[in-house]
Amino acid sequence: MDKARMASFSDGVVAILITIMVLGLNPPHDATLESLRPLLPTFLSYVLSFLFLGIYWNNHHHLLSVVDKVDGRTLWANLHLLFWLSLIPFGTSWLGQTSFAPWPVALYGADLLFAAIAYYILVRALIARHGNESVLAIAVGDDFKGKGSVVAYAVGVPLAFVNSWVAYGLYVAVALWWLVPDRRLEKTVSS
User: Fold this and answer.
1) Does the global pTM surpass 0.70?
2) If you average pLDDT over every residue of the chain, what do you get?
3) Closest to 3 (Cα-Cα) out of 124, 126, 86
4) Which pLDDT belongs to residue 170?
């Protein structure tokens, strides 16, 4: 099967998710800077979620740029990833409305954890389709960054009940780690 349809659908879903999140940013009724202060948690949760969706969109694009075809297993793996990404607006809203209380931070981290696992499964499905000697398999290698992200989220979820700000900081650190697009695919293709 052609990968273009899967890529287009995924692009559309991510665009809709970002739109849903921005619609959740309601301006204050007062025209003062002070009236923005209560909206800071909502804005911070939006910024982080926007970054995560952008990171997934960017890496998904790079991922599909080095493969030729997809199969049924790949389509389901992609839908699995999109399912977890589709929950990000909910977690974003709950984080903002509760000023980063433990349960919302833990739930947000769990969503990030399952999205990271789903992305890993998608990568493995594509490698299974294209082989262990494919450009993708060579570029991904041992996937230290992907596995490290899963570990960070797995630590962050229970940590949210000890200190929700430290757990949230851990999620921010993962986002910053991934902010620069994964260059492994670009390097492998160019060499």
Assistant:
1) yes
2) 92
3) 126
4) 97
Q: Which of 185, 4, 189, 27 is nearest to 78 (CA)?
A: 4
Asked if pLDDT for residue 159 goes beyond 80, the answer is: yes
Spacing of C-alpha 40 from chain mean position: 22
Query: Where along the chain do its domains lie?
Result: 3-190
34 burial level (CB within 10 Å; 0-12, 13-18, 19+): exposed
Tokens of 49: 């979620």
Residue that is written with structure tokens 């650190």 in the block: 173
Burial class for 124, CB neighbours closer than 10 Å (0-12, 13-18, 19+): middle
**Which among 151, 154, 148, 156 is positioned nearest to 177, based on CA atoms?**
148
